[in-house]
Structure formats: C-alpha cells, structure tokens
Amino acid sequence: MKKKEIKGKIVYRFETPIYPANILYVNLIASYACINDCLFCSRPRGKNEIGKPNIYEKKTRSFLYLPKPPSADEIMKEINNEIKEDDQELAIIGLGEPLQYLPTVVEVVRRAKEKYPEIKVRIDTNGLVKCMYEMPAQKLELAGLDEIRISVNAINKKEYDVICRPQFKNAFENLTDFVGDCVNSKIETYVSFVIGFKCGEVKPRISQEYIEFTKSLGIDKDHVILRNYVEPLEE
Hints:
single chain, 7 strands, TIM Barrel, 7-stranded mixed beta sheet
C-alpha cells in the first residue's frame, strides 16, 4: 500500500508582540521552493529536509510543506473556511518564494479583494519575479494588491550574489527594477534587509548604509525593515 504523503497547511496563523492574531497567512509554495539559496536562510531545502527544525515552522507552529502548489480554488476555499470577522490582513508568504506562482497569486489577490474588500492583502517576496514573468508589478496592482514587502538584503550585485546565491543571472538588476515598478504603482512598498549576519566574503553593513541605498530606489526610511539575523535551530 502506498504511503500517504503528509501535507502541510495552506493557511495558518501565529501571534507575536509585533504581529497580531488578526492576520491570516497564505502558503502556496511546493516543497519549500525558492529561486534563491540565501546563506542566512534556515528554511528546509525540499522534500529531503522535511521535519528539519527551522525558525519559521516553529514560530508559526505549523507544518508548511506542500507536495504540490495549490490552485487558486483550493486556496480560496481555505481562506473562506478560516477567515474571521475581525481579520484585518491576508498575507501571502509561506516558506520559500510565493511569486514563483504569479498567475495563481494574482488570481487569489483579485478574488480575495473582491470578496473581502475591507481586508488588506500583502505579499512578502524576494523580488525576483521579473526574472520569470513580464510586468508583474502591474499585474499585482490591477489585481488590487495593497502592500508588498521585498527582501533586498544587499546594496550591490556583488554582495547580493554572494549572500543570496540566486539561480538567475542579472537577479539584482531585476530585483531593483521590480522595487522601482512597485514604488511607481499604487502598491505600498517596503524593502527589508537581514542585519547581523556575518559572511567572510562580504563586509558587515551598518543600518544607515541600507537606508542610504534605498533612497536610490525611491524608498523612504519609514518603509525600510531591518530584520535581525536568527541562528538556525539545532537538529
């Protein structure tokens, strides 16, 4: 008899002093997939690392491995089942890169905003979607996306390639172009950087250097998120 594969959650919740409980999180990422392999990231790397201790699943108290990406219908069914009257935000995040599935994300954003117009819809992304799709910011804007948080994590291509190890050539250029596209749209745009991570090939940066760099991207200081590096969990 074939062993049934364990499936993780499509929607989940967690609460911290920073993030309240009235946010419903959406996970649509298969096999923890990402198009970067960031040195500071402790996500499991695919099916072979299912069950590996990581800060993300520990924090959410949820198993997030999906054997395949869910359809927009499947995602909306889960959202409709779990949404609460006092929810203020729908956050498409998961464990990996959600905008690998841009067509599905656009459809979910559009349908969620049509059904729950009072709820803010947000996406967290590494911003490399322009390496895969044309005009992603415009498509997300038309769907009604309210907010996007883009992980930049470096101030130049050389440092980005060392720290984030992207699969695509010209990743940093596409990333900064995408930030600019979002800034020029109606989407409220934030950028984030992991600070406190030490890599021998890249000198440590102070917070002000990140803030100065983001000015060239059209980002104000109050739209810069600096996230402290968290050590991987012990096996």
